Structure of Acetyltransferase:
Amino acid sequence: MKIVIIGQGGHSKVINDIISLSNEHEIIGYLDDKYEDFSITNKGIRGPISAAFKAIEYNKKINFVIGIGNNKTRKEIFEYLELPLELFATLIHQSAIISPNVKIGKGTVIMANTIINSDAYIGHHSIINSGSIIEHDNRIGDFVHVSPNATLTGNVKIDKGVHIGAGTTIIPGIQVGESTIIGAGATVTKNIPANCIAVGVPAKIISSNTVKKVGV
């Protein structure tokens, strides 16, 4: 599969490594708004994000991946381009351990040394970062970022747009609402509603649309 990475920052470097280790994929270009014009050289495709359709005209077998860690930005780019989901690649690092019963959406990237166990579901355009554990029967929505070494135990539900900080632990049966941020190292023992920031052990809400900020 020939891949064009959208975005050329730090996160795209990790995606580059995943592709480089694979025998199934080949990077043939980058789209990033640091490029003013679309071009094809011996280094491959280069151009602004809006040039995705020109890239398709050049090679109709291209697949894309959005190499940007920020959930909101990833979603905005996907909606701006209006490309069908089928044109986005699902990338899995060769060291990941994934149950055959897991379902993974389009555009999602599974990083090195992750473990995803039976009957988990990972949505579209999500990131499961290095060393994370996604236990059985988890439901993870679209445009989610699970940061390195997070542990989501059984039957956890993560709604779309959630960012889970590095080293977070979420106990069984918990739900985290849409677009919420869980701070690094938190232990989540109760359901967290949408559009919140929660930190600490156990995790407490410090900011939300309905709760006044009480600290950092």
Notes: Helices lie at 10-20, 52-58, 71-81.
